[in-house]
């Protein structure tokens, strides 16, 4: 009888200790290095964001962050790799929102959706703009549209990404003008096309800032949801009456199925890592604006972006199918 009572007491004590043990195990995260995939090549805006925040995350989490380059497909190669990783918090990925919100709409070969990942936090975004040569006859959007209608001739746009092609569709639809899209490889190529007089305008994420500051180019509008901090005088396209906006926001994501405590630990570490010094570095090195959003806000933002572009993607795909 005494033995049975002792056994029962020991079992009850062991059972009562389980939540504490589980909590202790969770509190130990992380206890080994974390791998951070980077979805773009070295030297670009996403890579710079990742490299700058890497050291601060190491400080906040107390373990090394090992950066691994996974470029290709505008971040979709990295996202696909992340999709198949173990959801334990030891593999995360720095990418851009288009890979989750836009690219699956454009490419049927991409089988994942926004909700096939656990998105940890939004980190930063580029200050983008539609820019023209400094000696172009247009000083603002109204000038551009009026001239296009008066001449009855298509404007030409150097475009390196689908985001700016979708912008052209939105402008054509809203203003009754024509825009010829000239594909280029990379934002710098688009800028050179405009500076060389080969196209009227180009869209750029951040590379246009030095050209504007040197007096070689001038901005006409922003594709953002709000005005650029460094150029607050530039209106957004939505302010100008065209219902289109898209900012390829940089963010950290993880495989689906992260324990909630692990996800929250990572999200809090990102928020703390975005110090005033880091924010200043992002702005000075790449003209990037820090913009922390927690997991829930990041997912909401991605779905908003997807719904914003869906009608214009449908028009683009229909035009390509003709």
**In whole angstroms, how far apart are the ends?**
86 Å
The CATH topology name of the largest domain reads: D-Maltodextrin-Binding Protein, domain 2
Going by helix content, strand content and strand pairing, the class is alpha/beta
- Taken together, the total number of domains comes to 2
Shape: globular
Return the CATH class of the largest domain: Alpha Beta
Low-confidence stretches: 1-26
* Largest sheet: number of strands, sense, barrel closure: 6 strands, mixed
Q: State the order of secondary-structure elements, H for helix, E for strand.
A: HEHEHEHHEEHEHEHEHEEHHEH
In CATH, the homologous superfamily of the largest domain goes by the name Bordetella uptake gene, domain 1
Whole-number average pLDDT? 90
The total count of strands amounts to 11
Looking across the biggest beta sheet, what order are the strands in? Answer: 2-1-3-10-4-11
Estimate the strand proportion.
Answer: 15-25%
Corresponding CATH architecture of the largest domain: 3-Layer(aba) Sandwich
- Number of helical stretches of at least 4 residues: 12
Give a brief description.
This protein is an alpha/beta fold and 322 residues long.
């Amino acid at each position: 009888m005494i033995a049975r009572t002792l056994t029962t007491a020991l079992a009850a004590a062991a059972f009562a200790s389980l939540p504490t043990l589980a909590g202790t195990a969770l509190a130990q995260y992380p206890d080994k290095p974390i791998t951070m995939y980077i979805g773009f090549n070295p030297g670009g805006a996403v890579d710079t964001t990742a490299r700058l925040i890497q050291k601060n995350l190491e400080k906040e989490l107390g373990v090394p962050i090992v950066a691994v380059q996974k470029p290709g497909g505008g971040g979709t190669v990295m996202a696909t790799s992340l999709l198949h990783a173990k959801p334990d918090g030891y593999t995360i990925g720095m990418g851009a929102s288009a890979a989750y919100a836009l690219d699956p709409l454009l490419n049927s070969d991409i089988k994942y959706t926004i909700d096939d990942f656990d998105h940890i936090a939004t980190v930063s975004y580029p200050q983008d703009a539609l820019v023209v040569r400094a000696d172009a006859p247009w000083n603002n959007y109204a000038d551009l549209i009026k001239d296009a209608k008066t001449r009855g001739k298509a404007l030409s746009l150097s475009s390196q990404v689908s985001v700016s092609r979708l912008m052209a569709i939105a402008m054509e639809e809203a203003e009754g003008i024509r825009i010829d899209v000239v594909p280029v490889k990379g934002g710098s190529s688009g800028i050179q096309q405009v500076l060389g007089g080969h196209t009227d305008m180009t869209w750029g994420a951040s590379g246009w800032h030095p050209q504007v500051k040197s007096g070689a180019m001038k901005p006409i509008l922003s594709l953002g949801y709000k005005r650029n901090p460094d150029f607050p005088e530039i209106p957004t396209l939505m302010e100008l009456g065209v219902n289109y906006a898209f900012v390829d926001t940089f963010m950290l994501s993880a495989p689906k199925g992260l324990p909630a405590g692990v996800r929250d630990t990572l999200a809090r570490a990102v928020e703390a890592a975005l110090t005033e010094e880091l924010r200043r570095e992002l702005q000075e090195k790449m003209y990037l604006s820090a913009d922390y959003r927690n997991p829930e806000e990041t997912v909401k933002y991605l779905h908003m972006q997807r719904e914003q572009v869906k009608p214009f993607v449908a028009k683009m795909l229909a035009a390509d199918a003709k």
